[in-house]
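Exam revision sheet. Question 4 asks you to relate a sequence to its structure. Input first:
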Amino acid sequence: MGPASDSLLPLAVDLTNQDSVRAAIDKTVSTFGSLDIVVNNAGYGQQGTIEALTDRELRQNFEVNIFAPLNVLRHALPHMRRQRFGHIINIASIVGFQGGYAGWGCYVSSKFALAGLTESLAAEVAELGIKVTVLYPGPVRTDFLSSGSLAIAEHKIDDYTQAQASLDLHLGSLAGHQAGDPDKLAMLIMQIVDVPAPPLHLFAGHIANELALQKMRDVRMDIDAWQGSAEATDYTD
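Answer key, structure tokens:
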């Protein structure tokens, strides 16, 4: 990342510790005078079927993937609210919109939670001049599938063959061959913070866009097939 300079302030932060987060944000504001952009990018993958995952594994993944961003938001928003501007970008994943992946339910649900949080946050802060975006990248060629960014469940149930096949695919042919370019993804973030009307939802990469469109088509099919019966559950008087 480089040494500290007039334009760079590297800080060691424990995102799961509120005091650490508060100190880092306060230091940032005191150094640069304002807090213009927040990018919540912390997270790691947790593989394992819902039945097999332990309570500890589930809670630890949510601690980093959803409660850490919440820590950042709670301490960043007072600054942005006072200055009446800013842009928050929460990095979810395409699996936070289209979640049909066996063996990834914990990670998927944490990213769905982050996406839902972003939508509500956008409604809350719009009157304060603060903009909000949830970014859904497809597979990006980073170290995400390495041991440092991916936790594999301690327990495995052999009956769940699709979950194992998905893990083998990710660790085998997909690792190191993801379609997404992290440098271009960073440039996309720089692009959206420089426009007057940034998107609330942004799908990054061809794969993410295709999967999102397929999800919307699937939802539309279910609505069309069941709309009559579903709407019949309303009171008729």
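Marking note for examiners. The chain has a mean pLDDT of 91.
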